[in-house]
Amino acid sequence: MQYNVVFGSILTPVDAFGFVGNGTVTTGADAVVFAGKRQWPPLVKLGIFLVITILPLVVFKFGLGFVVALFVIHFLCSSDGSLSIHKSTISNVQRNGKQIKFMAQHPDLGKTRATTFTVDTDQNAVSLEGELNAKESAEQT
User: Fold this and answer.
1) Is a pLDDT exceeding 60 seen at residue 137?
2) Which residue segments constitute the domains of the chain, with CATH numbers given?
3) In the predicted model, is pLDDT for residue 36 greater than 60?
4) How far apart are CA 35 and CA 23, in angstroms?
5) Which residue, 27, 43, 57, 69, is the most exposed by fewest CB within 10 angstroms?
């Protein structure tokens, strides 16, 4: 089943798997698929930040400013992407209203990451929590 979500939280607008803003979470038999905007790697963003702030300052004697550069990087340095997470690696599923948090292993890095996203409705949040917890119940039996 597919759910509309907003990745991240107020304090951390970028999800631990690199997703930001609106997207979808699709659950299947063996995997959970995140789809939406993914942030670019930190070194690329740093390079763009330096170009946006320093190059205009040197060439035009006018800098854009750090706040503008950070705004541009946050909202424009992302591209569409998806990531499939094996259900067997998901643990510690928690729901607070429409917000869902859980731990899962990153399929490319092999490291456990915490993810947070907000589902569009309370009913969908309860349904998604049930689907994520169903994996844990099936493993325990």
Assistant:
1) no
2) 2-40+77-140 (2.30.29.30), 42-76 (no CATH)
3) yes
4) 6
5) 43
